[in-house]
Design goal:
By secondary structure, the protein is an alpha/beta fold. It has 11 helices and 10 strands. This is Sugar transferase.
């Protein structure tokens, strides 16, 4: 398949994670890989950063073009810089991985098919190969949401290059409008709070700013039902130091769902029941929202247990 897209990997100081991602990409038989390595934040990071870069240097099964930063940009600035630089080379679309997102052997094929399929659809601005453990509501292999996923994703130059990642006045304007907040939070109550944290400089996230751009331009995002990505970052490593996998990733991610052809979605309308379930993974800190989520998740576990019991019986 001839495509005009680039595969990009962002790495830092996790050699073990990076090695797993590289092995996943090897199974995808890519021909070229662009790598951006952030510089060490502290002297204690330096050794691990160098070890991670050595893994990249050892790749012999594809062409590699790497850029090793001397200074520490941070993840958000690294992603914004790296993706923008690759688009400046003339690519129409990109496929992006971070160092904890291990792709299965069908990931690149899925992404290329999706980017090709939706390339002329002006509503779709983002595609991801990650899948939440939610019910399958439609016959397609993908579903449509307003919110983008940062785990194994892709987009097109025409959308990324028009994104203002420093739209402070626009963020503030939205957060001062209750109706806009409600619309912004349609896929999850956490998102306006997330944007406020970005505005207050308590977090530095490219993703919430990218979502703001997609939202402001009435864009839509494609997610895979069956996850083609396994995030290995829930071990306390990485920027966010997270240990709890609140997304309850499916165990079947390792390549059991081989498809000859992916069925992609043409209906751009949001499925209300799907979005209701999707929202449960992106709650805010209010007690009401947390109780609703606990009840929702508990009900799902009970129903799943009953279905399994009937099968066994």
């Amino acid at each position: 398949m001839v495509t005009n897209n680039a595969v990009i990997l962002f790495i830092y100081n996790r050699p073990d994670h990076t090695e797993k991602v590289i092995e996943g990409l090897r199974k995808n038989k890519i021909q070229k890989l662009y790598v951006f390595s952030d510089g060490p934040k502290t002297d204690s990071d330096r050794k691990l950063v160098e070890e991670t870069r050595e893994i990249i240097e050892s790749i012999t099964w594809c062409q590699v073009e790497s850029e090793y930063s001397v200074t520490n940009k941070g993840l958000a600035d690294s992603v914004i810089y790296g993706v923008s630089k690759i688009f400046s080379k003339g690519y129409k679309s990109v496929i992006v991985l971070e160092d904890d997102c291990v792709p299965n052997e069908n990931y690149i094929r899925f992404m290329r098919e999706s980017l090709n399929y939706y390339g002329s659809n002006k509503e779709v601005m983002h595609v991801s190969g990650f899948g939440l453990p939610i019910k399958k509501y439609t016959n397609a292999d993908v579903y449509i949401t307003p919110y983008p996923c940062s785990w194994g994703w892709g987009t097109w130059a025409e959308y990324w290059n028009n994104c203002n990642f420093n739209g402070i006045n626009e963020y503030r304007e939205l957060l001062n409008n209750k109706q806009e907040i409600k619309r912004f939070n349609y896929p999850g109550e956490a998102f306006s709070s997330f944007l406020q944290l970005q505005l207050d400089r308590k977090v530095n996230s490219w993703l919430i700013r990218w979502y703001f751009h997609i939202y402001s331009n009435h864009g839509k995002c494609v997610w895979s039902y069956d996850s083609l990505i396994e995030n290995k970052g829930f071990d306390g490593t990485g920027v966010h130091k997270v240990r709890y996998d609140r997304f309850n990733q499916k165990k079947s991610v390792a390549g059991n769902n081989v498809k000859k052809k992916y069925i992609l979605e043409d209906n751009m309308n949001y499925h209300t029941k799907l979005i209701k379930e999707f929202r449960r993974y992106f709650i805010n800190k209010s007690i009401k929202e947390r109780l609703k989520t606990i009840l929702y998740m508990s009900t799902g576990i009970i129903l799943e247990s009953r279905r399994n019991y009937k099968v066994i019986k």
